[in-house]
């Protein structure tokens, strides 16, 4: 590892950036260095401008990818090299306002029933029934489960924020049954190993790649063909289904760990609850207006 990369990782850690953000930012700087075949600290501001235009106009990066590109490289030049270039403050990527994919309750049931082996089925059920992010569920520890109060303490949330989420009784029963299959002292979802026998002594939780691959298989078996459906879709579905059940949006905001209520309210666009009643009221209001 080069000294520059070590400096960047140290700066990212000091700034409180999450592990995945650190990886993404370091990757963007590495791609910049590979593009010019030289160390990024030797590049000029004009070369940096040319690189961004190439990524935008030639590589045709999506807005979300351009934001990561800008953010990672801006962090490197401002906080590691301490460059005060005008280009760094000029960079902006348009925000894409796309509604996330959501599964119906029946589709969620089909998907969970299609997930195998047992550890994957329990993991996906936990993600959905607690509204967790992928890494939050993987990082769950046995001590995070409060069976008496029917709560789960999420320690490793986005932005290093802790929160408590309600634990459905059926999910608690399922977790207890699953834990008895491995009885790991720390991890709720320990790595299973290739032969699925190493859970009791695993040194880490299951990997992202293993659960992502299992999700793709379960989705195919369940016959779900909607675009954009991934593990995170279970979290979107959880929030939407709570709204449809009449749960207060402020509570949903707390359960999801959203800082802003506006982030939670996007799920209002995904639910059809109340539409039928609204149409009836609209028709009654407008009835007789036409000559």
Write the layout of secondary structure elements.
Elements: H1 3-14, H2 19-36, H3 45-58, H4 63-80, H5 86-90, H6 105-114, H7 118-130, H8 134-138, E1 145-146, E2 151-154, E3 163-166, H9 169-179, H10 208-221, H11 231-244, H12 249-256, H13 261-265, H14 275-286
Antiparallel strand pairs: 1-2, 2-3
Question: Mind describing the biggest β-sheet?
Answer: 3 strands, antiparallel
Q: Estimate percent helicity.
A: 40-55%
pLDDT under 50 segments (min length 5)? Answer: none
Quaternary form = single chain
Cα-based radius of gyration, to the nearest Å: 23 Å
- Order of strands, main sheet, comes to 1-2-3
Question: What features would you highlight for this structure?
Answer:
291 residues; 55% helix
Description:
It is a single chain. With 291 residues, this protein is mostly helical. The protein has 14 helices and three strands. The protein has helices at 3-14, 19-36, 45-58, 63-80, 86-90, 105-114, 118-130, 134-138, 169-179, 208-221, 231-244, 249-256, 261-265, 275-286, and strands at 145-146, 151-154, 163-166. The chain is globular. It starts with a helix and ends in a 5-residue tail after the last helix. The mean pLDDT is 88.
């Amino acid at each position: 590892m080069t000294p520059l990369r070590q400096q960047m990782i140290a700066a990212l850690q000091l700034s409180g950036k999450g592990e995945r953000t650190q990886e993404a930012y370091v990757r963007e700087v590495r791609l910049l260095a590979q593009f010019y075949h030289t160390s990024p600290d030797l590049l000029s501001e004009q070369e940096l401008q040319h690189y961004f235009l190439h990524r935008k106009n030639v590589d045709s990066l999506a807005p979300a990818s351009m934001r990561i590109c800008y953010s990672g490289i801006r962090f490197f030049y401002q906080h590691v090299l301490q460059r005060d270039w005008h280009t760094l403050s000029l960079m902006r990527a348009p925000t894409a306002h796309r509604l996330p994919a959501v599964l119906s309750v029946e589709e969620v049931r089909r998907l969970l029933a299609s997930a195998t082996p047992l550890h994957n089925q329990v993991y996906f059920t936990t993600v959905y029934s607690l509204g967790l992010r992928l890494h939050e569920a993987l990082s769950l520890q046995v001590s995070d489960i409060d069976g008496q109060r029917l709560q789960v303490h999420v320690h490793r949330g986005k932005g290093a924020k802790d929160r408590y989420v309600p634990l459905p009784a059926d999910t608690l029963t399922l977790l207890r049954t699953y834990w008895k299959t491995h009885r790991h002292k720390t991890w709720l979802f320990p790595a299973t190993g290739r032969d699925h026998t190493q859970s009791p002594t695993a040194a880490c939780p299951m990997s992202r790649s293993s659960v992502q691959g299992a999700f793709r298989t379960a989705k195919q078996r369940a016959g779900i063909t909607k675009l954009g459906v991934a593990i995170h879709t279970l979290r979107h579905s959880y929030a939407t289904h709570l709204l449809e059940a009449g749960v207060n949006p402020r509570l949903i905001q707390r359960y999801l760990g959203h800082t802003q209520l506006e982030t939670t309210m996007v799920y209002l666009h995904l639910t059809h609850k109340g539409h039928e009643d609204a149409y009836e009221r609209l028709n009654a209001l407008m009835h007789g207006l036409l000559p």
